[in-house]
Write a structure and sequence with these properties.
Elements: H1 5-15, E1 40-43, H2 49-54, H3 61-70, H4 74-79, E2 83-85, H5 111-123, E3 130-134, H6 136-143, H7 151-156, E4 165-168, H8 176-181, H9 184-202
Parallel strand pairs: 1-2, 1-3, 3-4
The protein binds iron/sulfur cluster.
């Protein structure tokens, strides 16, 4: 299938975007991976340092955990164009300095990115069936007043947003303790996610 003109245009504009030049501690390098066939969109926070370097989303331990949750292997994740990745911001925002001996987390995604690009990008994806809202930033932006007071509460209310949207925690190692505290996520939400992914890829 050839790329629809709208999607081709918006992707080309996004890849050329330098709106955050001067605000980021490095040259912007937008990372986005969607196709005319995309039916499942993964919307995380922003690329991390490793993705900034590789130019491919989720080529990191977070990606390994996400693929495990989805029930897809590395090859399928990148080869099947029904899976797309478009984070809340497309450029790595940089990492906060270490504090009290602990490595700092990444800075929040630049807010202007979603405002500038998301409506146009989503409009150019007519086959969308399921959006994974990965982490609080993506949930607040996409759900607005429908988001609960915290990421945990929003994910716990996942049934309210089905079948178009599935809110999830970020698969980062930083959330390992969260996963231990909230075993219902892997017991209830992950099986639903795998079933939906199977339905989109193999039905
Ligand atoms: S984060 Fe978004 S708005 Fe900022 S430079 Fe990258 S693509 Fe442009």
């Amino acid at each position: 299938m050839t790329t629809s003109p709208d999607l081709e245009d918006v992707l080309s504009d996004i890849r050329a975007c330098r709106a955050c030049l001067g605000d980021l501690p490095h040259e912007p390098r937008p990372v986005v991976r969607v196709f005319p066939e995309t039916r499942l969109l993964i919307c995380g926070q922003a690329p991390g340092r490793r993705v900034h370097e590789s130019g491919l989303p989720f080529t990191d331990p977070s990606g390994d955990r996400l693929r495990d949750w989805m029930g897809v292997d590395y090859e399928t994740f990148y080869a099947d164009h029904r899976i797309g990745v478009a984070a809340q911001a497309f450029c790595y925002p940089g990492t906060a300095p270490q504090k009290h001996g602990r490595s700092g987390g990444d800075y929040p995604p630049p807010k202007r990115c979603a405002t500038l690009w998301r409506p146009r990008l989503l409009e150019a994806l007519p086959r969308m069936e399921l959006t994974l809202l990965v982490g609080g930033h993506a949930q607040v932006w996409a759900l607005g007043e429908r988001a609960r007071a915290s990421m945990t509460d929003t994910v716990r209310a996942w049934r309210e947003y089905a079948p178009d949207i599935l809110p999830m925690p970020h698969p980062s190692w930083r959330n390992t303790a969260w996963l231990r505290r909230n075993p219902w996520f892997e017991a209830e939400v992950v099986p639903y996610l795998r079933q939906r992914v199977r339905g989109i890829l193999y039905a």
